[in-house]
Known about the structure:
The protein has 129 residues and is mainly alpha-helical. The protein is built from six helices and two strands.
Amino acid sequence: MRIAPSKEFGRRERQIMDVVYRLGRATVGDVMGRLPDPPTYSAVRAMLRYLERKGHLRHTRDGVRYVYEPTVPHAEAQRSAMQHLLRTFFRGSRVGAVAALLELPGKELSDGDLARLRALVRRARREGR
Length: 129
């Protein structure tokens, strides 16, 4: 029985999902090698199984190893995370979220970045979003 994916992760679950999404497919060893301050092998294996039971991962066998992969495409997971972020921190305001991103300190936006943003806004208007 597949359990529908939940929307929220604990810190370590998020780290593990980030590794699996970044790699596309991962074994316990792959995950351990990319986690900050990794727990034991058996703890990582248990968390992967838990994420599988929750419906976020599935596995295939490769010899004696299990290879885990996400059940939801990365683009869909990104959209879901952004919707959660908008609801949680910006009361659903896309303008508020974009303004917060633009106000972050760091590298200045290039002319190419600004042109891309303008094109995305025009497309969103045309599509009624």
